[in-house]
Amino acid sequence: MYFKCAHRAPSTCQETRHIAKKGNKSLTVDIHCHRESYNAAEMMKAEAERVGFAALSFGNDLTKEVNRKQLADIKPKMESLDVRLADMDAMGVDVQAMSTAPYQYYYWAEPEPGRDAARLINNEIAECVATHPD
Fold first, then answer.
1. CA dist 110 to 71, 105, 107, 117, Å?
2. For residue range 24-39, what is the model confidence (pLDDT) as tens digits?
């Protein structure tokens, strides 16, 4: 069922339906996945220490432990293009829309290092796409 955003009601207009295709093949598209930049994380360590920001410092002890375990499990999938592509193949996903991992927005950073990290992250995502445009 398709929904109209403005009215939040089921859509009866079939012209709004879009199917991702490559030739005659319908594509399976993952519209929510994240990419972590190891290089940006390393670059921002000193800035995080300078401003007193500690990743995974929020929440109770159980939340912190769940976050640590989850990050350990998914980190290779967010850092390695080879691991990501193997997972996509295993799941039957043809295309992913990648975005920056939310904790790498670095809202707490000063403007210049935040800008430099954003530039690095964007360049790494662009390189991933250029390497595997399909």
1. 25, 12, 8, 11
2. 788 999 998 888 899 9
For the ranges 10-14, 34-38, 114-118, the one whose mean pLDDT is highest:
114-118
Contact 112, 19 (CB under 8 A): no
d(Cα 39, Cα 117) in Å, to the nearest integer? Answer: 9
Determine the Cα–Cα distance for residues 36 and 75; give it in Å rounded to an integer: 8
Residue 112 belongs to a domain: yes
Residue written as token pair 């530039």? 119
Domain ranges, residue 108: 20-131
- Going by the DSSP 8-state scheme, the letter that residue 34 receives in this structure is E
HEC assignment per residue over 5-20: CCCCEECCCHHHCCCC
Name residues whose C-beta falls within 8 Å of residue 23's C-beta, 6 or more positions apart in sequence: none
Examine the pLDDT at 114 and tell me if it is beyond 90.
yes
Domain assignment present for residue 2? The answer is no
Cβ pair 42, 117 in contact under 8 A = no
Is residue 10 one of the residues assigned to a domain?
A: no
Instruction: Find out whether 103 and 95 touch, Cβ atoms under 8 Å.
Output: no
